[in-house]
Amino acid sequence: MTEDDPLESDGGAYEREYADLGATTQEAMEIAETSMDIVRQFVPDETLADRIRQKSVHSMGDIEFQHLLEFTGGDDLGADEDAPVRAGARAVLEAANVVTDITMAQVGITGRGHDCEKHKAIGHGSELANETGMTRTAAGVLELDKRGVYDGAIATVGNAPTAAFALADCIENGTRPAVVVATPVGFVKAEESRGRIREVSESYDVPAITNVGRRGGSGLAAALTNELIHVATDVRAGDLELERTADERSADEVKK
Question: What is the pTM of this model?
Answer without folding.
Answer: 0.88
